[in-house]
Amino acid sequence: xxxxxxxxxxxxxxxxxxxxxxxxxxxxxxxxxxxxxxxxxxxxxxxxxxxxxxxxxxxxxxxxxxxxxxxxxxxxxxxxxxxxxxxxxxxxxxxxxxxxxxxxxxxxxxxxxxxxxxxxxxxxxxxxxxxxxxxxxxxxxxxxxxxxxxxxxxxxxxxxxxxxxxxxxxxxxxxxxxxxxxxxxxxxxxxxxxxxxxxxxxxxxxxxxxxxxxxxxxxxxxxxxxxxxxxxxxxxxxxxxxxxxxxxxxxxxxxxxxxxxxxxxxxxxxxxxxxxxx
Length: 278
Ligand SMILES: O=C(O)C(=O)C[C@H](O)C(=O)CO
Ligand SMILES: [Zn+2]
Prior knowledge:
Its cofactor is Zn(2+). Pathway: Glycan metabolism; pectin degradation; 2-dehydro-3-deoxy-D-gluconate from pectin: step 4/5. GO terms for molecular function: 4-deoxy-L-threo-5-hexosulose-uronate ketol-isomerase activity; zinc ion binding. This is 4-deoxy-L-threo-5-hexosulose-uronate ketol-isomerase. Its EC number is 5.3.1.17. The structure is a single chain. It is built from one helix and 23 strands. The chain starts with a strand and ends in a 7-residue tail after the last strand. The longest helix has 8 residues. A hairpin with a 5-residue loop joins β3 and β4. It has two domains: 123 residues, Jelly Rolls, CATH 2.60.120; 132 residues, Jelly Rolls (Sandwich). It is globular. The chain is an all-beta fold and 278 residues long. The strands form four sheets. Strands 1-3-4-11-6-9-12 form a seven-stranded mixed β-sheet, with helices on one face. A seven-stranded antiparallel β-sheet has the order 2-20-17-22-15-14-13. Bound molecules: the ligand O=C(O)C(=O)C[C@H](O)C(=O)CO and zinc ion.
């Protein structure tokens, strides 16, 4: 298991950043390495993002030395989305089967997590969002069929998309984690339109199901001072509360969004008018 750190930055700091500095600060690349678990500890509301691709041997974690508690989950909760082929996750020996796009919520107090793939040559790809938690909420498997799906957007503006809420008060409760998956409709390439800010929550986007030759252009920054990040399959964008977010792909893609902060009010967002962007 590896753990890297991202300290984040304030809105004025992006003026001095070149492309490499911007990417090093606001992106996490390389989370999905076959046979490994990789975590990045962000100082954006202390969300940890992670990836794991188990092959022949299952992968285990749960030690808390990197987070300063005896066990990883002593003061944390987590959502784990399977973005790959069928696999399974054991929480303290209790096994849950996860098909593609199923999500497992792991509540505070778990001791040991083991991640496995049904077939080593068609592995699961587990994506993880973990945030501090102050309550014990039961572990729960949320199959794709139980997610609450909302369709939004406008075909004339190429932004029709369906947004599936998994870890959400109306679907599966958590302490302060929100997690879901958004799929642009065929021919629709824009996500998160209109762009928005949510001053009370950070957000992490993990782009997936993107062809190797395609990229998503993810826009960030203050509305009057935007930048872009060129994102490949499996890359994560860290979106601070002060930053807008919206993106367009050069081909089909999907993304997992995860949020935490002061509240779980999905509607607590401030849309930003396109004509105000600079
Ligand atoms: O396409 C969208 O719109 C989204 O998926 C929006 C994200 O869920 C989001 O930014 C929530 O704040
Ligand atoms: Zn958002």
